[in-house]
Amino acid sequence: MTALDHLDAPLRMTWFLDDRLAPARQILLAERLVEAGLFELTLTGHPLRCPVLKEILGILAGRGMQVSLVVTADDRDLLPVTGQPPARVLLDLGPSPGDVVPDWRGIEGHVQSLREAGCFPGLQLLPLRSSIRLLPDLFLLATDLAVDQVLLPNVPLTDFAGEDPGPRLLRAEDLESFAGFWERIDPRPPIPSGLVVHDLFLWEILCPGQRRDHYSGCQAGNSLGHLDAAGILYPCSSWNQPLGALFDAALTDLWQGDLRRSIRDDIARQPDACNGCRVYARCLAGCRGLSRAFSSEDDEGRGRDLMCSGRRDL
User: Fold this and answer.
1) N or C, which end of the chain is more exposed by having fewer CB within 10 Å?
2) Is the full-model pTM beyond 0.85?
């Protein structure tokens, strides 16, 4: 098996894992990921419902891969993780479908159970219009629980099956409103030492003046990839362009294909909406996948991050 061409960075992938596929096919997908020599894998969706999770964790750990696991509010009662413990377990604090606000009760007990199981617990919250102002409470919770790892991920389009996530996504005006809200908080909660913010514009509000290590623009199809519940490979969980089925071809073959390379060529081109912007050299247009999915052809901001205001002329 040919090793994966990592290009600019080692490949980090997410895999939406649940109980829909036959166990043998899920094992096959795990083996395909191992064959590709991934650097890091995060199991999203409902991994605790997967009947062969223990076997999958054993396969992944056997090759030294860094494995993280995300547990939603609906699945917390399935904790702790059994079998080979992953390096990190993120407790997703977003609301369950139909809920207006998240229910964070019992989080302390779950954090403790994960530590006793040999896992490193972390917290995750998806920044949406309904959740962005919960960040101060999230940071205080992390401080109280002595949790360093806090993740604010990109919006994974595959997690909104049957629902249009567009109305829930943060736009430039939402971020400007949050910036004013954050500025007025006194005292401001401490920022977790292990905070990871996928969107550059949100990072700069929360951590002004702090260097964001290794940021080099949209990494879809380069250092990021995503595998959905059916075994379909994508450039990123936020880029809904299928590259092919992992049952039909090795990940290395799909990754070396013309379609993935054309996506990287598109990302390398500066969007027309970014012409004359004095911060383009820093942001490189941000998240391209969400912009591609939720900007119309005649949208003057098409191609740049949905949270960019566009008012950055020289």
Assistant:
1) C
2) yes
